[in-house]
Every structure is written in structure tokens, then in C-alpha cells.
Design goal:
InterPro entries: Kinase-like_dom_sf (IPR011009)
Number of domains: 2
Structural class: alpha+beta
Low-confidence stretches: none
Strand order of the largest sheet: 1-2-3-5-4
Order of helices and strands: HEEEHHEEEHEHHEEEEHHHHH
Protein name: Aminoglycoside phosphotransferase
Strand content: 15-25%
CATH topology of the largest domain: Aminoglycoside 3'-phosphotransferase, Chain: A, domain 2
Length: 279
């Protein structure tokens, strides 16, 4: 067990062993590209998930906030984990294990009912509360472009020219997942459940559709129709949707380059090209 906990710092190990003194590590589900350690453990006869962040991690605090404030509708229907222990300052949490296998790469990824359920889950998350906040999408997008990346200089110039003209207007924001796509859905006996709230935050509702639109909706339009059948009215207003697509495309290409995910970086460059082609 000691070896399995090596990536946790001293405070995280201390808290974990206080919360779960008899824990046994069963599997390591860490992604490997980011600082987050994800362990499947057994303690007191229960299967649990431990998530711990590295020194510069900011995802664990977001996930803890989501568990404490926004996951009630999902927990009520057994569609998400229940938080058992957490410490935002130490960047660690323990939650119940969510059964199922990842939708990504399985036949469920092409099943319309998967997207109907995903739409309903997202509508339940979004529908809990809303508020109007000032927003500056322009500054956010430009910050991504100011980082190290491999976007072609001429493409970067086109992006900067467009972004400089974006309006700064108040936006209605709701609780969002932040990475709503099949790699964060589990399915068991036809039931879809959600995991990984590390990017959860108050944002516009349409932001949770960006990655689906770039991937699954793009390859099979009927999946988009199925999703909206579950979700309800389409939240995408054309002007704001374009800005979201451009910003998400830039963020994908830059972030993936920084963590060394070549496939995801290529997707980001494709998203940029498609967004600019739609001008």
C-alpha cells in the first residue's frame, strides 16, 4: 500500500489514513497527464475512490465544491458519487465508487439513449440555480494564446484579430460540469452516470456542449438530436456559441500541448480550423 500512496504528500497520506485506517488499494485510475492521483480502494468493506491533487492543482477544490453544492439531483437518482471526506486545502477527497465502465470507446458511445440520459443529467445540473455575471471572454481567450503553443503564427494572428472585437457583456451562468463528454460518463445495465467534476464551475450552459459538438455530434448528428431530446431547448445562441467554440478550440490545443497529449492537441487544431472556416 505504501508504494501506491507515494504520489500523495505527507498531509494527504495523514488525512487518508485517519479517514480510512484499514484501506487497501485495489487499482490506480490516474490519467498520468495531470497531477491528480485517482485510486480505487477498499475500506471498511466498501469500495471507494480517492482523489488527490498535486502542489499546483486547482481541480480538487472545484470538485469538492460541486459535491457539496450541486450534485444533489444526481445523487438522488444514484447517478453520481457521494462525498465521504474532503479537505480543499490538502487537495484530497474520498467518495463512494461509481459502478460501470467508461462510455468512451464502447458501443454505448454510439447509442442515442446514452445521449438522451446525458442530456437529462446535464439539464438537472444546469437547472439548479443561475445568476448574471460580468464576463470577459476576450481576456480569457487571449490568455490561452499568450501561453506556449504550436498554433501557426498566421492562424494565431487571425484568432487575435477576431477576439479583439468580441463584446464584453454580462452572461447568465449555471453550475456546469466543464468536461461533459463520454470519457466522463459511466454506463452499467443501460444506466448512465457521471464522474470527474474537476472542472466544475459557474459558466454559461452552452459551454458544456462544446466538446460534444466537436466530437460525437460532429460524427453522428443524430446523437445531438438525442441529447437535446433529453436536455430540452438548445442553449446555444449563435454569436455566443461561436465565441465559445473559438475559445474552447484554443484552450484545447494549448492545454494539450502543455501536458503532451498529441491526439488531443490535434483535435484542438482541427477545432480551430473548423471555427475559422465557419466565419
Amino acid at each position: 500500500m505504501a508504494h501506491d500512496l507515494d504520489r500523495l504528500d505527507a498531509r494527504q497520506r495523514q488525512l487518508l489514513l485517519r479517514w480510512l485506517p484499514d484501506l487497501r488499494v485495489e487499482a490506480d485510475h490516474s490519467w498520468g497527464l495531470v497531477e491528480t492521483t485517482v485510486l480505487e480502494v477498499v475500506a471498511d468493506g466498501r469500495r471507494l475512490i480517492v482523489k488527490a491533487g498535486g502542489p499546483t492543482d486547482h481541480h480538487l477544490a472545484r470538485e469538492l465544491h460541486a459535491h457539496r453544492h450541486w450534485l444533489g439531483p444526481w445523487r438522488a437518482t444514484g447517478r453520481a458519487a457521494t462525498l465521504l471526506h474532503g479537505d480543499a486545502q490538502a487537495r484530497i477527497l474520498v467518495a463512494t465508487f461509481v459502478p460501470g465502465r467508461l462510455v468512451l470507446g464502447t458501443p454505448a458511445q454510439d447509442e442515442p439513449d446514452t445521449y438522451v440520459q446525458a442530456g437529462r443529467l446535464l439539464a438537472a445540473l444546469h437547472g439548479q440555480t443561475s445568476e448574471v455575471q460580468p464576463t470577459d471572454e476576450r481576456a480569457s481567450a487571449l490568455r490561452w494564446l499568450d501561453r506556449d503553443h504550436r498554433i501557426d503564427p498566421s492562424t494565431e494572428a487571425r484568432l487575435r484579430a477576431e477576439i479583439e472585437g468580441w463584446p464584453t457583456t454580462p452572461t447568465t451562468v449555471v453550475p456546469t460540469h466543464g468536461d461533459w463528454q463520454p470519457r466522463n460518463w459511466l454506463v452499467e445495465d443501460g444506466v448512465v452516470r457521471a464522474i470527474d467534476l474537476g472542472r466544475a464551475a459557474l459558466r454559461s450552459a452552452m459551454s458544456d456542449l462544446v466538446r460534444l459538438a466537436a466530437q460525437d455530434f460532429r460524427r453522428r448528428p443524430e446523437l445531438e438530436a438525442a441529447f437535446l431530446a433529453g436536455y430540452g431547448p438548445d442553449p446555444r445562441e449563435p454569436g455566443a456559441w461561436r465565441r465559445h467554440r473559438v475559445r474552447e478550440a484554443i484552450g484545447t490545443a494549448v492545454w494539450a500541448h502543455q501536458v503532451g497529449d498529441a491526439a488531443f492537441e490535434a483535435q484542438g487544431h482541427r477545432m480551430i480550423a473548423e471555427a475559422l472556416a465557419a466565419t
